[in-house]
Amino acid sequence: QVQLVESGGGLVQPGGSLRLSCAASGKILPVDTMGWYRQAPGKQRELVAGITLGGSTEYTESVKGRFTISRDNAKNTVYLQMTSLKSEDTAVYYCFGGRGWYGPNYWGQGTQVTVSS
Fold first, then answer.
1. Coil, strand or helix: which one is 83?
2. Do residues 49 and 77 lie in contact, with contact meaning Cβ atoms separated by under 8 Å?
3. Residue 8 and residue 93 in contact, taking contact as beta carbons nearer than 8 Å
């Protein structure tokens, strides 16, 4: 099993920045693909960004050029640097782990990101 613990959410003004972190622990390490989904009120959970052990990345179109995903394989930790935040980025962000971008095997507990003035 793998446990994912997120940190770094909060309230930020439009145009601001936040960095999310997600640390993985457990017996089944390293996790091939890690990243972030998000879910806004009344909407389906959507992939935000993912990264493989080899460094391949995937981003949803709406965050390209604003968000950057990275990982430290030695620490089993993935990061999401979010800049130029918009109100539509407001959501609960969930760290995920698995193989591939979709159908994750593991989820974090979620961290709230609120973009508001």
1. coil
2. no
3. no
Nearest to 37 by CA among 63, 72, 2: 63
- The residue type at 55: G
Location of structure tokens 């009344």: 42
CB 28 within 8 A of CB 20: no
Q: In DSSP terms, which residues pair with 3 in a beta bridge?
A: 25
pLDDT in tens, 49-108: 999 999 999 999 999 999 999 999 999 999 999 999 999 999 999 999 999 888 899 999
> Which DSSP helix (H) or strand (E) runs through 70?
strand 67-72
Three-class DSSP category at 61: helix
Buried-state track 2-41, b at ≥16 Cβ within 10 A, e below 16: bebebebbeebeeeeebebbbbbeeeeeebebbbbbbeee
Amino acid at 44: Q
Among residues 79, 89, 81, the alpha carbon closest in space to that of 115 is found at 89
